[in-house]
Specification:
This protein has helices at residues 19-29, 92-101, 164-173, 226-238, 297-303, and strands spanning 9-16, 33-40, 43-52, 61-66, 79-87, 107-111, 114-120, 126-131, 153-160, 178-183, 186-190, 198-202, 215-223, 247-248, 253-258, 264-269. By secondary structure, it is an alpha+beta fold. It has a single domain, classed as Roll (2,3-Dihydroxybiphenyl 1,2-Dioxygenase, domain 1). The radius of gyration is 19 Å and the shape is globular. One of its GO terms (molecular function) is dioxygenase activity. Keywords: Dioxygenase, Oxidoreductase. Residues 8-132, 153-270 form the VOC domain. InterPro entries: Extradiol_RC_dioxygenase, Glyas_Bleomycin-R_OHBP_Dase, Glyas_Fos-R_dOase_dom, VOC_core.
């Protein structure tokens, strides 16, 4: 019987305060494309913003719930602590200069022989850039970023677990990642995909994480399709991880569960993707709503703050 394995990260979803500031940073500074502007299906008065590569492929998409009234969170156990993005080999100097241009403080770090450029977004999310040959080129030019320097997608993530051994067990025995290293307080796992494929578990003690602005809400793993997702759900039930029912998120179907270290995991299907309700050339331009909320479009457009993707002053 073939062992089920995820290719890696599907998307990562985080909490922030200000929608326009969020767009200015991830689209304006980092050059990601706003691939979908929709609402939080569970709280329609809050945007759900998706950023990714030119087509919003799985493994490239970071999403946000920007809600002005939420309290500041605290990064700690039970959360994704650091989000890594892959940049092309030879582009790190470009990114150092770019971060300096926008007055973003950064530092260098090393794990498993790789150099990481680390910084935070305006809400305090911890990010890092890593040069790797893996992953397809992101053929997108925007602002001051040309395709040869553009972020390709996720490199991976650092998980801060309340019980690292239990998180490791899920990565290895449920999701099918391979443990490839143990070094300086981190356990490293690798999946078979070429994006979002390196997961480090932090082994040293940490404070308890508190959900709020500047923290990751959940990390999602890739499933090939709905049939694959049903198999994952059945496996999770057999292993007593108590997954949710399959939920339709318009752009993918998903199940959610908490692993033993307290982190909220999701498994999401690759299809149908972000062109299911608008052409790829137009994705991210207008507010897209699920069918059951379309009758409230006018009301929601009045309630939600006005936002836009814009080239920042430093790039003009």
């Amino acid at each position: 019987m073939k062992v089920q394995k995820t290719p890696g990260i599907h998307h990562i979803t985080a909490m922030v305060n200000d929608a326009q500031r969020n767009i200015d940073f991830y689209a304006g500074v980092l050059g990601l494309r706003l691939v979908k502007k929709t609402i939080n299906f569970d709280r329609p008065e809050v945007y759900h913003l998706y950023f990714g590569n030119k087509t919003g492929e799985p493994g490239t998409v970071i999403t946000f719930f920007p809600w002005a009234n939420q309290l500041k969170g605290r990064i700690g156990t039970g959360q994704v602590g650091v989000i890594s993005f892959i940049i092309p080999v030879g582009s790190i100097h470009f990114w150092e200069q770019r971060l300096q241009k926008f007055s973003i403080e950064f530092s260098d770090s090393e794990r498993f022989g790789e150099r990481y450029l680390q910084f935070t977004d305006p809400d305090g999310l911890q990010l890092e850039l890593i040069e790797r040959t893996e992953g397809p080129k992101n053929n997108r030019n925007f602002g001051g970023i040309q395709a040869e320097n553009a972020i390709k997608g996720f490199g991976g993530a650092v998980l801060i677990s309340a019980q690292p051994n239990k998180t490791a067990e899920v990565l290895e025995n449920i999701l099918g990642l391979e443990c490839i290293g143990d070094e300086e307080g981190f356990l490293r796992f690798r999946s078979e995909g070429n994006l979002g494929n390196i997961i480090d578990i932090k082994l040293s003690p940490s404070v308890r994480g508190l959900m709020g602005a500047g923290t990751v809400h959940h990390i999602a793993w890739r499933a090939k399709d709905e049939e694959d997702l049903l198999k994952w759900r059945s496996l999770l039930q057999d292993k007593e991880y108590y997954p949710t029912e399959i939920r339709d998120r318009n752009y993918f179907k998903a199940v959610y569960f908490h692993e033993g270290g307290g982190i909220l995991f999701e498994i999401a299907t690759d299809p149908p993707g972000f062109s299911v309700d608008e052409p790829v050339t137009e994705i991210g331009n207008k507010l897209m709503l699920p069918s059951w909320l379309d009758s409230k479009r006018e009301e929601l457009e009045e309630t939600l703050p006005s936002v836009e993707v814009r080239v920042l002053e430093g790039d003009k």
